[in-house]
Amino acid sequence: MNESVLSEVSAQAIPGMLTRTPTQTLTEQLAGRLAERVRAGLLVPGARLPSVRECARQQGVSPHTVVAAYDLLLAQGLVEARRQRGFFVRDSLPNRPQAQDSPGHDAIKKGVRARLAPPGPLQNAPLQATALIRGMFHSPSGRAQPGSGVMPPDWLELPALQAAVRKVTASASWARSALQYGEPQGDGGLRAVLSQRLAQIGIEAGPAQIMTSVGATHALDIVSRTLLKPGDPVMVEEPGWSVEFARLAALGMRVLPVPRSAAGPDLEVMARYCSTQAPRLFISVSVFHNPTSYCLTPGSAHRLLELAQKHDFHIVEDDTYCHIAPEHATRVTALDGLRRTVYVGGFAKILAPNWRVGFLAAPPDLFERLLDTKLLSTLTTPSLLEKAMAICIEQGQLRRHAERVRARLEQARSRSVKLALAAGCRFVAEPMGVFGWVDTGVDTDLLAQRMLDDGWLLAPGALFNATRQPSTLMRINFANTQDTIFWQAFERMRDSMRG
Predict the structure, then answer these.
(1) Separation of alpha carbons 83 and 91, rounded Å
(2) What is the pLDDT of residues 167-180, one digit of tens each?
(3) CA 106, CA 272: separation in Å to the nearest integer?
(4) Which residues lie below 8 Å from residue 375, measured CB to CB, with a gap of 6+?
């Protein structure tokens, strides 16, 4: 984020007015509020605090009070003062090695400059991404949050989960197995039903090719740590999920952003990368892509596989939203037959986020290496939850629950789209799936900070770019944007920014 945007973003960073209390001075209150934002990751490293004069005006206090509060933050090591520029949130990240451009980097910049930022280190990506994640865990209010990536809790209630856990723990075999580590690959029963489930969407993978993980993100991490080493280039769709950019950057990888359209990834850009950067891996969300909800077309999938074969790279297909997607949707893994692809799935978006049950299906020649990586990171995964999940799948509860969620989501999407259009937003991708990708007409980094002061957590478009460029786009969760109160607050804030 550039400095001028940071200056604007932070100008409304302090929620509410200060009030005098017997136990805290105004200085302590102001410093405490700002410190809480910084520690929660909601004011990212590099964000500029309001000027002393502006902060004093906002809070109705003297400039002396503001200076004293900023001094407290300086003493705590949370901010730094820059001569004639103001106060900025300190960058607490360790220095990372700078990735060096390869000889072919100039060719990439010339060929796709208009669509693609040059690859390079993502300096603050982990904290910028985790700011949104922290907001998911610590909601600024009791309301449904437009920027959240999960379904409302009351959508996910499934009594069968509790019944399945009771059934597992009541068995005599569980009493014995609980005193030992589980199977390295994961519970055999779950892997068997997952094999059957994958066959229904055209993916032939026997239980021996399936491995469980602690959620889908862990599965992605297993693949990355196995197939890549620090400094390796890896292609990722842009816009894309900021956690993936941040995770790869934290591992020391060089992220090569590939523009994503309605049909699929930009294959011309990928071909240029392959010719000059020799990437080892491409990570893609084929179905209900996050944040656009695009779905891969068969033609793009075939050409993608041809490119992978020609240039010898693997494809990781993250099918996080498979349970709410049509079974006939194109999966590149189904076309490939698990030769150059690794398939990743999970249940957090549909059933039990806190169970953290995920899995991957991989080619036989990669499997043992992937299993070694899993063993080094977690030894095994919790077999109690895996056995219970197997029961829910085998007895049809998961299928019936998914049907109910799809019906609710369709209704929510219809209402949310109408409200967004009435509020003056424009959809830049056809509304499908869980998320809407909308143009607000204003800088959504600034909008997000201002809305946060009113208790609304947004997902600004910059979060979904590898190099975090200012954007007027934002991602909305259809399930969480049916409240007219949010859209009224959105319109007031947007109009105040325009005025």
Answers:
(1) 17
(2) 999 988 887 778 78
(3) 11
(4) 184
Task: Give, to the nearest 10 degrees, the angle between helix 484-498 and helix 444-453.
Answer: 120
Q: What is the pLDDT of residue 189?
A: 95
Report how far Cα 189 is from the mean position of its chain's Cα atoms.
30
pLDDT by residue (tens digit) across 117-149?
334 434 444 445 565 555 555 555 677 889 888
**Are the C-beta atoms of 211 and 368 separated by less than 8 Å?**
no
Alpha helices in 124-187 (DSSP H): 125-137, 159-169, 172-177
H or E segment and range at residue 105: helix 105-112
Q: Is 396 left (phi over 0), alpha (psi -120 to 50) or beta?
A: left
Q: Which amino acid is at 281?
A: L
Of the pLDDT bands very low, low, confident and very high (cuts 50, 70, 90), residue 13 is: very low
What is the greatest pairwise CA distance in the chain? 72
- Helices 216-227 and 242-250: angle between axes, nearest 10 degrees: 40
DSSP three-state, residue 224: helix
Place of tokens 């949104």: 132
Task: Write out the two tokens for 451.
Answer: 């809305």
Distance CA 256, CA 177 (A): 45
Instruction: Map residue 309 onto helix, strand or coil.
Output: helix
Residues counted in the chain = 499
Q: Rounded to whole angstroms, how far apart are CA atoms 227 and 369?
A: 9
Query: Residue 218 is encoded by which pair of tokens?
Result: 């862990």
Per DSSP bridges, beta strands 86-89 and 358-361 are unpaired
Angle (CA) 384 389 393, round 5°: 155
Helices and strands, number each (H, E), in the chain: 19, 13
Residues in a beta bridge with 473 = 439
Annotate 399-417 with b (16+ C-beta within 10 A) or e (fewer).
Answer: eebbeebeebbeebbeebb
Asked whether 435 and 83 are in contact (CB, 8 A), the reply is no
- Tell me the three state secondary structure of residue 90: coil
- C-alpha neighbours within 13 Å on the C-beta side of residue 335: 20
